[in-house]
Design brief:
The protein is of the alpha+beta class and about 110 residues long. It has three helices and six strands, in the order αβββαβββα. The strands form two sheets. The protein has a three-stranded antiparallel beta sheet with strand order 1-2-3, with no helix packed on it. A three-stranded antiparallel beta sheet has the order 4-5-6, with helices on one face. Strand 2 (about 35) and strand 3 form a beta hairpin. Helix 1 (about 1-20) crosses helix 3 (about 95-110) and helix 2 packs across helix 3. The N and C termini lie far apart (about 30 Å).
Amino acid sequence: MPEEKNLDHELLKLAAKGGGLDIEPCTCRDPKWPFRLKGQSGVRAHWNPLINDGDALKLAVELRLNIEINAGGVDVYSGDLDEGLYVPVSGDLRDCTRRAIVHAAAKVGELP
């Protein structure tokens, strides 16, 4: 489980970079909120698009992602990426959609 947590942290860092956001470690010690928007405090500063619909939507809008949701999974397309990204559904469709958005943003964050 700690390995998955570290992978999610790296994914979130890349997604923030892709979305042009400055984040920093959150000091609240709640594991659901490993990051906050830099220079802000309080619950509105918390940032985790893997669990927060609003944070994921902001990333999708900022990156102008095209999202196609179907029974089998979620396809995400961005003009910044050469190819689309597909995330199969495993459980909750909303969770899958958030994860697809974060993965696409992270791919943009990996670009030079």
